[in-house]
Amino acid sequence: MLRLQALRPGTFLFLCRQASKGGKPIDSDTLLRLEDGYKELVASDSKSLLKKHLKKDLFEKLKKKTTASFNSSLLDCIQTGLSNHDSAVGIVAPEPEAYKTFAEIFDPIIEDFHKGFKKTDKHPECCFGKCNDFANLDPDNKYILSTRVRCGRSVKNFPFISCLSENAFAKLEAMISGALNTMSGSYKGSYLPLSGIEKSVQQKLIDEHFLFRDCDRFLKTSGAKRFWPAARGIYFNEARNFVVWVNEEDHLRIISMEKGGDIGKVYERMIGGVEALEKHLDFSRDERLGYLTFCPTNLGSTIRASVHIKLPNLSDNPKEFWKLMDKYNLQRRGTRGEHTKVEDGVYDISNKRRVGLTEYEAVKEMYDGIRALIDAENKIFK
Ligand code: ADP
Ligand code: DAR
């Protein structure tokens, strides 16, 4: 994969126009690793969307393709899914152009994960809607421990995390931390480079759900850990209810979180943070896919609105629990986030879909789902 400096505006567009011509032919080693990895994937009992949609004829059609801008190969996209057969998805985009060059594998996976966003569909314009439509679902704090609403953003003219050169990483971190240092009022705070945070403090921040974990094996094998911990960091406002992750999986994860179930207030705070940052940073947005991210599961609105919630009765009735989760397009994660276990009955429940619905609709899908779960927790078991 060719490592270029951050592209000057204009150069990037020129390179995209070259996209149709593709990049350099892939080398024999990459081709061999692709062939062997694909053979093992096909022979495995993987349930990943990659295995489901990358049929042999499509693999043969894509295996030698590369992007014009950064020479990304199919291997750069699917190494994570070839190395981790227990992936749910198994593919990432090293750069924006990958979504075009490898559209024939990305589009069916996007349609599948986001439950029906076809390759002919267009993601809606950004619409945050009315935050006060989301009243506190649990004012007595019987079920919801905390609420978090986050979105992802990529800075224009930079490739994604696995394709950044060391210089581009440094340039990107400087741009983002510069924008963060302009935050004012209740958003005022400080940016902490990860390399400057002691390990014990890092662990405490991870345990308190503020800081990202040290890059799980899925991210590691996708190339997201290059030059780690360089150019990674976290921004907190003074109240510690507004957080920005820098260069973890996406260039930015803009996060609002607090104890309790006041979803509207948490959502409103995230919106304010996004709007303040977009005055200083240009974000990558595709005409059809919406805001662009490293992982196709986070495209479009990029919104994940979640609650940490205890539902002891529903937990004893998994059939009913999952029926409601499916009905409301909800996703369940462990207490410490993705790929972690549920501890003390605390579930991380959020919207699953992010593409094909506005920011408001994504939050509403979570809101309606959580309300249904709480109703079921009460009614069915009275
Ligand atoms: P994301 O993809 O949104 O970053 P992860 O699954 O990686 O989410 O979780 C990131 C961190 O956010 C984890 O520590 C997780 O426990 C925490 N988290 C997620 N939702 C909530 C919530 N509603 N309240 C508190 N912490 C949360
Ligand atoms: N575990 C990987 C990632 C799926 C979505 N999560 C992200 N992007 N953090 C998988 O393919 O299952």
Automatic annotation (TrEMBL):
Residues 143-380 form the Phosphagen kinase C-terminal domain. ATP binds at residues 146-150, 209, 253, 304-308, 333-338. Its EC number is 2.7.3.3. It is an enzyme of class 2 (transferase). Belongs to the ATP:guanido phosphotransferase family. One of its GO terms (molecular function) is arginine kinase activity. Keywords: ATP-binding, Kinase, Nucleotide-binding, Transferase. GO terms for biological process: phosphocreatine biosynthetic process. Residues 30-115 form the Phosphagen kinase N-terminal domain. PANTHER family: ARGININE KINASE 1-RELATED, ARGININE OR CREATINE KINASE. This is arginine kinase. It comes from Drosophila guanche. It comes from the Eukaryota. GO terms for cellular component: extracellular space.
